[in-house]
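Entry:
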Amino acid sequence: MKVYEIGYLFSQIGGRYPGISIPEEDVAEYLRLIEQLVGHQEYHKLTENQIRRDGGEYHVTLLTPQEYGRSSYEDVEKYIGKEISLNYLGLGKVKKGRDEVYFVVIESPQGDLIRENLGFTERDFHITLGFTSRDIFGVRKDVSTLING
């Protein structure tokens, strides 16, 4: 279990939304595991796509930009700067057509409760580490996607 601070993340188009910034050292072991699984060349392709999209940073999304736009900003603001516990469950992978995404599967009962308090359903918390041509949305990124899990 690791403890972080809830803050604002910024989308590619400049919109902000609540989430948790993750230091690279907290995901380093999972990055090494991806490289072992897919090889050096494919690893660099996967991680370069994530770096291009996220600017070399890692994060957990608490509310998507769309959800944040539908929420009460005052209610969300109560959580900014507060601590949140994240439990790293392991490396996950999903595939859709030719697209593949690797991520750390995260469990956070506290995050689930915050989402519920803000009027949203549970979410498959995860940290995206790399993907082929694009991230895959609208699929589960939970314990059922764990590699060797």
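The radius of gyration is 15 Å.
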